[in-house]
Structure formats: structure tokens, C-alpha cells
Amino acid sequence: MRQTKPPNLPLHGPIVFKRERDRETGRERGVSTNLRASVPFPAIRVVLVRHGQSTWNEEGRVQGSSDFSVLTTKGESQAETSRQMLIDDAFEACFSSPLIRSNRTAEIIWGAREEQIITESDLREIDLYSFQHEGKSKFGAAFRKWQIDAPNFIIDSHYPVRELWACARRCWTKTLTHESRSVLVIAHNAVNQDLVATAIGLGTEYFRILLQSNCGVSVLDCTPRLEDGSPYICLNRLNQTPNSPVAGSSAGRKTSKRIILVCHGSSQGDSEKTAELLLDLKVNTIVGSPKMASIETANAISRIQEATDCLGADCVPRYVEMKQMQNLDVENILQQSKKDATEVSLSSWLSGCADGVVTAIWDQSGQAWKSLLEELSNGSEEGNIIIAVGHPVAHIALMGRCLNLTKEWMGLFHLDAGSISVIDFPDGPAGRGVIRCINYTAHLGRWSIPITRSVLDDKEFQLYLYMYPKIDCDQLV
């Protein structure tokens, strides 16, 4: 999927783009980002955190780049939870927006670390000009435009979303050329959406598609290409929150239609923990691969779902429909590869697969995605929650389908065994999916591995980053 730059914002500066061809096969293998620097930069892990709940978040007011709100008691607590989650991580630098709500979050999370927090003006929240002070009350029609077509929303002769994408270019240039190899960035909802989207090559039309909750954490691995030192990107996780990943609205909009992608667990214990995470939801249907690991995970979720509504003496057990979907089974295709997908990161594994293997997975995912959307459409108007259980590679392809990408983008994502990824459909199955989270693993009793690790002597971590994919950005706008 080729992206185009928004009008009136010409691409400029040190980041340029080109489509690559694999040296062995001669085929195009994706679009890469070339970051011109005086010396090649090392592998970098960038951790993005949105600020905690602010007073204006609580009141439902449009904040934009205004600086009148502060963290609520809940917001301070969220930041403290994130501090505990990240306390053992070996960050070398922290960038923060200068706005009070973000800077206070940074102070809490950064804690007693010796390095000074770096305030970066380009991390300020999206500037909505006069709209952010009046919002719904004065600009009713404009507010509707902002809700349904944000990339083309204009206020005071400005296009806020397009300007935000230009700011992201500058932020990435500063981050990737900084001396640190593990960077914490604490900013805002729109800014962090933009930083994730531009890193993986998505344009302004993806605004509000990659959710960022209060104190939600997103992780990007940036590794240099051997030939010229420019970066490859892998989205290790998106919006891992201190709270449940299945609670709340989608980009401020209520939704009753949802697909939850559950990677089958590596143990029965993982399956049980995943089932417990989802027990507050009323799941309508569980669709799974016919492989045993997926069946066991699906059965664990079904048992807890059906038992949850039957705690009283007079209750009637709720039935959860169980189905098997052959198109979710990719393991026979994976066996065609000589590599073991469990030995290295999935993203690097996918980038090294033969084109025929990746194409077969991608083509099969198209049928699976179509079937899941049909299943979602068959539910009641009140709501329909579908859980799909399968191999991480199958779910990576499904996320690509949701985002309307092509097979070349599959190496951009990483999923762990037992993780969940949540896709909401506020406009129904015929509308665009909003990705609430990717690769959520907090329920497994781990923040995955520490988000960052010491990179000075840790050869295992250096190898892990080195093995990330040779697929990167389409166009940074």
C-alpha cells in the first residue's frame, strides 16, 4: 500500500525513502527509511508512553496543545503503575513534551534516574488552535468534521493532523540520531499515534486507528541496515496499559463490535490467565485454529465465560458458540520454511521466509479475515464479541488485513505466545477497525521481558535487535 504525502506539506529534511530489492531474489521487499547521519546509529529501542489521566480528560474537554490541565489523582496513580512496570528498564534518555500533564507523568516514571529529562517542543499535543478552547459548544459542525474526517479538518486556516505528521518527522530525526540506545518518550494521545504511524509508514488517514490510552505503552525497535545504517522498524507492542485492554471506548467512540486475536498459549497456565483477563466480557463466539494448542486455549476461555454468568443458585449457564476455522491454521504452511519460527523473533523470521511461504500465509489470511468479519456481522445489534485463537503468524497477517496493508508489511509486527490484540469496530464490521492494543502480555505476569535491557554487555539483546526485519517504512509524512 503506497502512501502519499499530504498536500502543502512537502517532504524535506534528512529522511528519504526508496523501495528496495532483495539482493538474492531481485524482488521488491518493502519500503525502507534512509536516515542520513554522519555515522551509522546503533540499534535503538523507543518506548512511547502517553500521559496519565488529566483534569480535562476527566471532564471530556478538547485539550489540544493548551496547557491548563493537570494530572488527576487517577492520572498520578496510572503514572506510578507505569513507573513500577518500567522500574528495571535500562533507559538511557527520556524525552518529554513540555506540557504540564506530560512533564509530570515523565517526572513520576523517570523517578530517581540521574539523567535529566529532555524537554522537546515537537512532542506537544496536536495544536487545534481556537477549537481547543471552545470545542463542541462554539464549533458544533466543525467538531463533527473533526470526529469523522480529522486528516482534512481545517481550523483557523490550519490542518492540525497534517501539521502533526510533519512534527513526527522532526521527532524521529532527533530520536534516532541521539546517542542513547534505549529511549523513553512521554507525550500525548495524538502525538504518540503519529509517532507510531509514521515509524511504520502510515499516513494521516490512519489517525485514530492506533489507540493510545492514558499511560499506554508502545514499543518500537529500530535497527540499522548493514549496507548503510538506516533503520528497520518493528512495532513490538501497542498500547499496553496499566488498566484492562478491553475496557473503555475506542478513540472516544463507543463500540459494540469487537474482534480479539488471542495467540495460543505456550502452557495451560497461559491459557487460563488469558481466559481470566477476558472474563468481564460477554463473548459471543470463539473461532479457533484446529491445532491442539489453539483448541486448548479456546476451551479454557469458553469454560470461564460460561461459568461467569452462573454464580447464583438460579442462574442459567450462558452458551458460547465454538467454531473451528481452517484458514486460521498456518502451521502446515510454516513447515515449508526451513527455519523454526520459535527460535528468533517472528518479525525477523517472516522477513527471511521464502516469498512463497509469506504469500501463502497472506492469501489464506484474506479468507480468514473475510470470515471473521462475516461472523461479526451476524451478531445482534446490541453487540458482538468474536475471539479468534491461533498462531501468532496468522494474527500478524490478520492485523495487516485490518490495516489494509500488503504482505510486505508483515515483518513490522511482533506477537508473543499468549498475547492478545484487540480490534474495535465503532462503525460496524463494514467500517474501519480501530486497533486498541497489539501484543498485550501484562496478564501473563510479565511486562514481556523488561522493555529495555542493558545493551553494553548483553550479547543476547544485541542479537535480538540485530535479527529484526528488513521491512520498514513506506513514507514518513
Structure description:
The protein folds into two domains: 15-240, 3-Layer(aba) Sandwich (Rossmann fold), CATH 3.40.50.1240; 257-440, Phosphoglycerate mutase-like (Rossmann fold). It is built from 14 helices and 14 strands. The protein has helices at residues 55-59, 73-86, 100-110, 131-134, 140-148, 160-176, 189-199, 268-277, 292-308, 331-334, 346-352, 355-377, 392-402, 459-466, and strands at 15-21, 28-35, 44-50, 93-96, 118-119, 182-187, 217-224, 231-240, 257-263, 285-288, 321-324, 384-390, 420-424, 434-440. The protein has a six-stranded mixed sheet with strand order 5-4-6-3-7-8. The chain has a six-stranded mixed sheet with strand order 11-10-12-9-13-14, sandwiched between helices. Strand 7 (217-224) and strand 8 (231-240) form a beta hairpin. Helix 8 (268-277) packs parallel to helix 9. It comes from Actinidia chinensis var. chinensis. It catalyses: 2-carboxy-D-arabinitol 1-phosphate + H2O = 2-carboxy-D-arabinitol + phosphate.
